[in-house]
Design brief:
Elements: H1 3-17, H2 21-38, H3 46-51, E1 55-58, E2 64-65, H4 68-74, E3 81-84, H5 88-97, H6 100-114, H7 116-121, H8 135-150, E4 180-181
Antiparallel strand pairs: 1-2, 1-3, 3-4
Length: about 210
């Protein structure tokens, strides 16, 4: 990796880890949720969940597995799954343990998919790909995370964060798209003018190695 790439990746990593535990967990869950909306099929974002410490629980037996593949092998007739969200401290430890290269190849693409619309509208630039170094995007992402860390509610404004500590769905309640999955589940991406822009979601991030 080029020195500049490492420096910008480190800036994003530092800004993300500067978030409080609650904001950190909220941010990752939000990114995964939005990535599901971006991908045509929900399971395309499973790689990111496994990398970030998520586990899979069978809705049939409630047994917990390290991956969907393990669940499918053990319970071929399962009816559905629930994602087990790691607690904030576990997530922070995982992110801290990542090398710069690991962070670059996993967290930066996740943020790119999740913030695709915002990046297009606010002219953040392209994510790292076969035709872009992604420097402008990573600079903008670091600023965005820094603002999340230090942003304070306006006078009289109350900010509510989602209850992300809940690991299992309650019987009879609906579960957000990021927390559910079935073998054939598909997510249809939203229409947006950015869908007609050049495809900058390429995960070929080995450009500057």
């Amino acid at each position: 990796m080029k020195t500049k790439t490492k420096q910008l990746t480190q800036q994003v990593r530092d800004a993300l880890l500067a978030c409080s535990n609650k904001v950190l967990l909220e941010t990752i869950i939000e990114w995964l949720d939005r990535a599901d909306e971006y991908f045509q099929y929900a399971d395309w974002s499973n790689h990111f969940r496994y990398t970030l410490g998520y586990q899979v629980a069978s809705d049939t037996t409630e047994a917990v597995y390290a991956s969907f593949e393990e669940l499918e092998a053990a319970e071929p007739n399962f009816m559905g799954i629930t994602w087990i969200v790691p607690d904030a401290e576990t997530l922070r430890n995982i992110l801290t343990s990542f090398s710069i290269e690991d962070f670059y190849h996993n967290v930066i693409p996740l943020a790119g998919y999740a913030l695709h619309d915002s990046a297009y509208e606010q002219k953040w630039g392209h994510t790292p790909s076969s035709f872009s170094d992604g420097y402008d995007f990573m600079r903008s992402l670091a600023v965005h995370l820094h603002e999340k860390t230090y942003r304070k509610p306006e006078r009289g404004q109350i900010v509510f964060l989602p209850d992300v500590a809940r690991k299992r769905k309650s019987t009879g309640t609906s579960t957000p798209v990021f927390a559910r999955g079935t073998p054939s589940e598909a997510v249809i991406p939203r229409e947006h003018p950015s869908s007609h822009s050049p495809d900058w979601s390429d995960q070929n991030l080995d450009l500057d190695r």
